[in-house]
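Hi Y.,

Following your request, here is the sequence exactly as I used it, all 277 residues.
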Amino acid sequence: MNRKTIITAILLPLMVFLGWRFIRPMNIFVVDERFAWPVDTESPPSLLTDLSAKNCGSCHQAFYREWQTTIHAQAWTDPYFQADWRFDGKQHNCRLCHTPLDRQQPQTVLAYRDAEKWKPVLEDNPGFDSALQHEGVTCAACHYREGKILGVLDTTDAPHPVQKIDNPNRICARCHIVEGQRWDTFFRFPPCGTVAEIRESRNRSGSKAVTSPAGEAVVEDYSDLGCVECHMPVVKRALVAEGEIRQTRHHYWRGGHDPAMVKQALSIDFAEYPANA
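Below is the corresponding structure, written out as C-alpha cells. Let me know if you'd prefer a different format.
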C-alpha cells in the first residue's frame, strides 16, 4: 500500500465525519428521560386549577414571598437564559426545565424523531398558560405530581391531596442532574449540569465526607446529593398562617448568583508563625 492510499484512507473518513458533524452539530448536553417530558398537570386538585404560585401563596404566604426573590422564579424570564436560549436556536428541551409544567409550554411534545431526544414532534398546546410560563420554576413544578401535592409531611390536614416524599432531593435531581459524558456532547460539564460539577470536585478533592454549612450529612448517591441541606436551610415556622409550628425549610435556593452563599464555600484562618519555625 503506497503513501497516497494511506493518506486517502485516513482523510476520507475524517472528511465524512466532519461533514456529518457540520450537518448535525454536537449537542450541549445529554437529554435524560427524567426531563424529556413536561410534568403532566391534566388532573389538578379543584383547589389549584390554575397552579399559579400566587394561588399557592394565598395559604403558604412565607414560602411564596421567598420564592418571589429566587432565580427559580426567573427561570424563564432571566435575560441571561433568554440570550443563551436564542443563541442555541431556541431548543425546545430547554423549556422542559425552565418551564417544567405542560401548561407552561406553547407546544406539546408528542414524541421524538431521534434516540437522543433533540428532535421533538410538537403540536400546539390548547392548555398553554402564558402567565404561568412567566413564573418559570413555580411551586407546582416541584410540588405537583399526578393530582397530588408532594411534601415531606403527611399529617397536615391540607385541603388538597398530599403525597409524602421521603427524600426531597429527588425533586432537584429532575433538572439539576444534566450529564455531558458522551462522545457527541460538546460540553463535558453542561451549562446547567450542577451535579456534574459537584461530582468532579469530589473526585479532585479525594474526599467524600461532605456536610452542609449547618453540619447535616450529605448523602453519597449523586442522585440524592443533599441539595436541600445546603440550599434550603431549616427553619421552624407554620406551613400556613396560624398553623402548627413545624420544621420546614427556606425556599430561597441561593447559589452561585448570591455573594453571601459563595463566601460560605471558602474559609481562611490566618496564623502567625515565628520566622525560624
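Residues 246 and 275 are 55 Å apart (CA to CA).

Thanks again,
Q.
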